[in-house]
Amino acid sequence: MRPGRPTDARIQRGPQRARAAFTLIELIAVVALLGMMLFVVVPRLDLADDARLRAEARALGGRIEFARQRAIFTGRPHRVLMELGEGWYQVEWFVSDRDVSPESAPVPVDPRGPIPMSPPESEQRHYRAIPGAPGDVVWLPEETRFAGVEVAEGWLSSGPVQIVFDEDGATDAADVYVQQADDATHRKVLRVGPLLDQVEIRDDAG
Fold it and tell me: pLDDT tens digit string along 3-16?
């Protein structure tokens, strides 16, 4: 054997070292590729969640604006009733049964009999759902919920809450917060002004 000639063991170890180095490079490439995918995909998912939340806020804001406009048009108070815990809302107006159903008008009083001192039941006014699809109950999707409502009296986070519009469309200022059900830091706020027709939707700055 000549001096300096590589042994069989050295000849065999050479390819094994090269293969190990190539595997490490592959691993680094895969990790880098996954990092790039996360860098691209995660922001897109966040933007999609934000778009869905904003769409729900706009839908609620549209019903609030509709309630104000209809109050002015009909000359009757309207309200948007929200059940914060259950996650639904509905547009209602302040009317009597006769306003909704003319055939339910009270029977004329017999002048020879006793005169009732209390108003007939059909004349008692109360809030009822407005007719048609705009008066249907709207449920928030499972991934969205009410965070709360800020009014002059303070913060409300559960139970029924109403935004009432007078005949001229005036109301008390209120901020309605909606959020993703699993993310309390991702919220939208709907700002209802006393006189402005448009509901302002903003990101909640916390």
Answer: 555 555 444 555 55
